[in-house]
């Protein structure tokens, strides 16, 4: 037996003993564990509304909503994360479908959630007993541990998207879940929820109200979002460059008690691009899911290019260069895990320099 | 010469030597310097709008507005602080009067300012070149070091109140002041200022806008304030006790980038009392100035009782027990120096327990 | 074909179409995705120093340290996370072994790291060019993105444990890594590093030094840790109950610029139990790794009981009830991912009430 | 009567009516109220230890320490603030003198205090019952509302300086004061106080201890201060410019639970200048008091120049340009009101650029 063979034998034995002792050496795994830059398993991907919505409809015919399954929600599963219902490693995104007069039962969980409505109306989500109307263009929050149930008060089905931090909370083993009462706590269908009546006044807060980690304002109405975006673009036209980039307006949904993100673990934003505008190519650490609310655009995600239109959703993995070019005026909802990276000091951004940006 | 006399002589000499050496002993001054509880020199006091406004009018006839004097503002001088134009030891409050077509010239200063409008319209305050309409019920901010000028575009005079932290900044020797251009930077009279168009959308902030110490939203319109107060009282009627006390609603003007006070050194609030409601007697460390916006009330300030109505202003010194009883529905604007005490760990509050208070 | 069969066929088709469209329904996965309470895949586990150290020694004979593999570090692989070199879902823990006169080359990465020394001396870790001696009982930090290399200046091997947030950063796709120069930047072996000379004075900070997310003090010496623990127990004996529990002292390594955790993503602590003391059973959300520094103890982790002694390491998964009973006086080093949960609002703690706890 | 005369009469009447109505116009007072830059009434001034100490001694002979007067403290009275025992508009500074075996009785107050010892030993200050030895070079804290008493256990008198925020708290009407027991709560004279035993370990904090607004470490010993300054200068000599300026080292006393100032309302620092070093001329908003601990220096305060030596104190008013030139190595203690300005957004600094400053 030569020295080299002896060495190899000794090494084989060593690795076998590592394995038996539940040990794994760094020197054979370093480049995978600690790559030079992020190598996400998740891939850039587009889910088409034209495919999603009919599948949701078919589910509506075949699958009842009820206790246990809890929601008729169908999750986007990133092909790079096979077998997992994760749009990205941290974000869960689904289409939820509620048939005429149906109710999704009450529960709460430590996972943070929101709903964004691409179309329709007639459903109220009761958050801690406060009925919140859901209508086209609205963002509705369900903070961690808030009881919630949904009821469709109309004779038509309604679908929307749900965003949650399920993958993050699962990886952190931080999920708690409890069922609520089986019967809806309220069947009221007010035009305006109590949280909006209390908190929906710009810059005004009830005296004595404590700061809260998640926004106490839990409904962000389309009319306000639309007005804010319109104003940004008009101000830029008037010579006050308050947009993100020329022709690219954007608002962040925020918590009026802190000014920070509306939700603790997810960032929620709405973007408007004028026809013909192309955003500066950009990479950030962390992942995002976008949904086209209106218009058409071409999205470049790394090496891939996709044409997207109303309802289409796409996932942007960490550190994937991305850019959006609007064919028509394009309105897009976006959510991401950026607050997690901000909180942990892991934020990184690379962006082609943009002229004229200034927000006062 | 007896021992006692010797001692007294020695003491006299000692005190005389102290004086010569610019020294003052504690043991003779302790009880004044460090009282058992605050002994403000400022006194509870009411200034009547019926007296203020005519004096402002007479000033309008006799005193030009111009460079040097800068503003036709007449300050409330607390009788307990003789010779000083201070409403309280930290707060300056004045009626400002601008005649038809008059302009108050541009300047900026480290002192923080706001305007609150009890009546009238037609004046625009240009803050950093952004023209802000002033109308009944509005609160308009002028953060520290922001250039500002006022112009009356109408054929009628207009008066409002100014609040500043002049006494505080003077005691801290922190005042800087610079004159701006003599001519107005803009004569535009837009209905809505740029800061409102950018920031006046509930819970929405421009992506990329940095946090700011003072609110970037610099106009708080009456319609919003009124709606917020109305909603609080209605919610309480519906069984959701979101008011400060039964029948007592209140909003704080806040900075949407932080959720904190709209201004760094002054707290600004608006209170509404239903007819017949009496607020729980309350003492706080720090002083405040209130103005009746509408209605009538009886104010108890320490041992004093005053009946107040629209436009009347009153000063509440530190630690002075106060309570307000509404004869009619009463709307009151309030500003105070509480952020100073919060920041310095000096806040103290004594309040008779109140049932049913809860703000979510 | 019966209705039921038809339905089943339709359902099968639906699920097949989901799969083809990269979709996964919630109703079949809800209980796994959103359990009633955390169900960690990671298991409670003990790695024995008596097994670890000889394997590290054998690696020292067989495996060179060099560029690419970078470190002769052997990671604890939780049996519940098969194939992954993760002690817990968020924490990487390893024994690192450096032979006489060996050097581990320079690199930096966004992953945060520390070293804790159970025995030995003679190695200096150069952090951003600042040589830091490593000796028994010391905690040495390597903040995110700080260049570091290790050199053994002695004729004897040295081993210690490394803790990193590799699993967390990998799941977040936030890892960046760069190689440094191949040759050590310095071969100096000062007794005290520059960061200690600048920052190692209790309660004193250099004027003008900015706050930093990670501690600028990067060496926490055993003499200080030992003295702090000794004092806590003595103070308790004198009637000032400053311990965590009777007979249980504990210190947290902190960042002198903020008072917070020494590292951004990991908490580091040292615990001392008097002989006979048993800690109150406790569950927390988040995972931890402990190492016995000295003494013997019995550890209860969920249903399992282990006897541990000097050098042994054990993993505590999320929400696993755990308690430690000291047979002799027992000193234990602990690190955890708690700052992540604190930052994301996911902290939960269940602890049997403990008498007499008070820290001033 | 001419028009001019009529006008003047009308104006006189107006001003008289203002006065009667407790009103003061801005236009006649603006330049005093809102100067172009701070115009402090306080003046630069030096108090000589050679004058102070003998006066304190004479007080020791003539004036008993006891209930009511509370302390044999003699305050520096800035000649620009006649009749007031204020070193600056916000800071109170005094020499306190305690004869052999004397006791200063227990009390507490919302005013924040500290002691700095220029010479001597033998006195213990009991802070909330924790006896704290006072020795040359030590800084000892008395946070707001902490009960404290002083006792001289030796046969020799001892003197030190007291710093308090009395003027600030008085202007804010925020002072509360209560007498404690007449008899000392403890006569123990431990070498090390309990707070030091619990908190005096660099970078280590008791697990479970909450953050506190004032430092829970209440004794900062000279040996640590001296070592920190020595290290800064040595590091600079070695090529690591960690000093404030070449030859100018400085430490700030900090709160280990937050990293911020040791006290809420006052900044405390220690500076060391090498012989021959002259600090860059500097202006800041806010005032400070310095005491020479050792050595000799020439101080330039605005237009004035003073030579100072051990024990001498000098006041630096707001925005007064100042510079210190060391004749010998000079050690100086400094306290200021800077935290107030930082908290209120009023900080301003003008400093001649300095080469080579860098603190890591």
From TrEMBL, chains A, B, C, D:
The keyword Nucleotidyltransferase does not apply. Keywords: Dioxygenase, Oxidoreductase. SUPFAM superfamilies: RmlC-like cupins (SSF51182). Pfam families: Cupin_2. One of its GO terms (molecular function) is oxidoreductase activity, acting on single donors with incorporation of molecular oxygen, incorporation of two atoms of oxygen. Residues 96-162, 289-330 form the Cupin type-2 domain. This is Gentisate 1,2-dioxygenase. The lineage of its organism: Bacteria, Bacillati, Actinomycetota, Actinomycetes, Streptosporangiales.
